[in-house]
Design a protein that fits this description.
Protein name: FAD-binding protein
CATH architecture of the largest domain: 2-Layer Sandwich
Number of helices: 17
CATH class of the largest domain: Alpha Beta
Mean pLDDT: 93
Shape: globular
Radius of gyration: 23 Å
Helix content: 25-40%
Strand content: 15-25%
Bound molecules: flavin-adenine dinucleotide
Distance between the termini: 48 Å
Organism: Antarcticirhabdus aurantiaca
Structural class: alpha+beta
């Protein structure tokens, strides 16, 4: 583990028994886990190279309990790490030895389905797929669909601004969340947005979405639900090179077509997925595009022909259109299972997540091949091609000397390359622990200080999810926060509002 976390506070560790008792008074019954063996399942998230057993795990069931836990931790200077289902791939839910892990998985009720207003109000522990399951019998669905949707929670999706294959056309979590209730570290319960389409004042809902558990704990989410399209058909397109597949993606978007989803896999990923789920993928190609077109049947039929034409012009050697709902689901099943499929061919893998301007796809793929040779590690590529969001999976064996360090160095070089071509460090998995120390590659010292001022406005003691996102923590006082001491404000001659 090469990313250092804040050193645990010995004074908090020494008070562990007293803290656990206090937490049990707030969340009685089975709501507090403090036994070493029972805490084991909470020691990591989807970034399994990093592990740390928390001081205690607390599983509240009401907003009042969340507020009371946060108020207690704030008063006692105890760090808090929020956790949904623990599928984060950037280590966002990695616990701290001196911190409380606040697990929202028992907040798992659908509170309201409001078809007239095209929305659902749910608790944060409801799984992403659980929302679609709750509304599909009425012909609706929740559009953002991370591949982890069977397990990940909507609270985690809000915190990471998660994406999925259908986000190209329908937007990320940020575009599909209408409102939240959240609790600050001081225990205040705040509501932002709601069923209405616009909100007054600053876009604090936008600020909270993607804040990775550093600004508040989400206790309720209102999401937009969409009517299922009349038709959806998926097209498998095989190419002799990744560069040609990349050029095809750019040509489709360039012609003004926004598919429901447009995903790309390279040869290692195609073979791993096909062996795992038998999706019907061609095995004699270097790159595969899955393009889904949805909408009224006449429009879909027309666009399928246009896309097939573009693909042929860009050098596609295979084209296969789904002939039934079952076949369409099978085409997607391979893509959605690509990560676990790669897990079958390598003892360990690191899943990276960077975003680049689409036209840079060929350059970045070539650069990645060179990096793979330089670091001596293989890479399988699965990505949201339409969004330019790459997911290189770096294959390594943690049991072998220095392979994790080499995999991390390789991953860092890929992300540097993304920034170099005008892209960004993350598309949807967040910064967390994984990309924390790379933030200066993208942001200046001034940028980072401004971001931390926002953090200070919500959590001036840095108790919510410390050690994530910011490479260096500054005290809020250093960042210019006004400190009132015994009723005396600094610079009393300045006009106040
Ligand atoms: C196999 C696999 C495939 C994946 N595919 C995708 C994909 O296609 N697209 C994608 O975007 N992601 C994907 N992910 C990553 C992950 O599933 C998402 O980031 C997801 O949103 C995390 O949700 P979670 O409930 O597991 O959150 P956790 O992992 O528990 O937490 C993630 C972050 O959210 C914070 N958090 C959690 N709940 C709350 C809350 N209620 N209030 C405040 N903060 C909170 C945590 O502190 C942490 O920083 C994948 C992961 C895996 C393992």
């Amino acid at each position: 583990m090469s990313v250092r976390m804040p050193a645990p506070n010995g004074a908090i560790l020494a008070r562990r028994r007293e803290i656990v008792e206090a937490l049990r008074r707030i969340v009685p019954g089975e709501g507090v886990v403090a036994d070493a063996t029972e805490l084991k399942p909470f020691e990591t998230d989807g970034l399994t190279a990093y592990r740390q057993v928390p001081l205690a795990a607390v599983l509240p069931q009401t907003t009042a309990q969340v507020a009371a836990v946060l108020r207690y931790c704030h008063a006692n200077d105890i760090p808090v790490v929020p956790r949904g289902s623990g599928t984060s791939l950037s280590g966002g839910a990695l616990p701290l030895a001196d911190g409380v892990l606040l697990v929202l998985s028992r907040f798992n009720r659908i509170l309201e389905i409001d078809i007239d207003n095209r929305c659902a109000v749910v608790q944060p522990g409801v799984t992403n797929l659980g929302i679609t399951k709750a509304v599909e019998h009425q012909g609706f669905y929740y559009a953002p669909d991370p591949s982890s949707q069977i397990a990940c929670s909507i609270g985690g999706n809000v915190a990471e601004n998660s994406g999925g294959v259908h986000c190209l056309k329908y937007g990320l979590t940020a575009n599909n969340v209408l409102g939240v209730e959240f609790v600050t570290i001081e225990g205040e319960v705040i509501r932002l947005g709601g069923k209405h389409l616009d909100s007054e004042g600053y876009d604090l809902l936008g600020l909270l979405t993607g804040s990775e558990g550093l600004l508040g704990v989400v206790t309720e989410v209102t999401v937009r639900i969409l009517q299922k399209p009349e038709t959806a058909r998926a097209l498998l397109l095989g190419f002799p090179t990744s560069e040609q597949a990349g050029a095809c993606v750019a040509a489709i978007i360039g012609q003004g077509i926004i598919p429901g989803g447009m995903e790309m896999m390279d040869r290692p990923a195609i073979h791993a997925a096909e062996a795992f789920v038998h999706a019907g993928y061609p095995l004699d190609v270097e790159a595969l595009l899955i393009v889904e077109l949805d909408g009224p049947k006449a429009e879909v039929d027309h666009l399928l022909a246009v896309v097939e034409g573009i693909a042929a012009a860009e050098g596609a050697v295979t084209a296969k259109v789904s002939q039934s709902e079952e076949e369409r689901a099978r085409f997607w099943a391979g893509r959605k299972a690509a990560f676990p499929a790669v897990g079958r061919i390598s003892p360990d893998y690191l899943c990276m997540d960077g975003t680049i301007p689409r036209k840079e796809l060929p350059r970045v793929l070539a650069g990645m091949r060179a990096l793979s040779e330089r670091h001596g590690l293989a890479v399988a590529n699965v990505f949201h091609a339409g969004d330019g969001n790459l997911h290189p999976l770096i294959l390594y064996d943690a049991a072998k000397d220095d392979e994790l360090e080499r995999a991390e160095a390789f991953g860092n070089d890929i992300l540097r390359l993304c920034v170099e071509v005008g892209g960004v460090l993350t598309g949807e998995h967040g910064v967390g622990v994984e990309k924390r120390d790379l933030m200066p590659e993208m942001f200046s010292e001034d940028d980072l200080r401004h971001q931390q001022r926002v953090k200070c406005a919500f959590d001036d003691k840095h108790l919510l999810n410390p050690g994530k996102m910011f490479p260096v923590l500054h005290r809020c006082a250093e960042l210019g926060r006004m400190h009132v001491h015994r009723g005396q404000v600094p610079f009393p001659d300045l006009p106040r509002f």
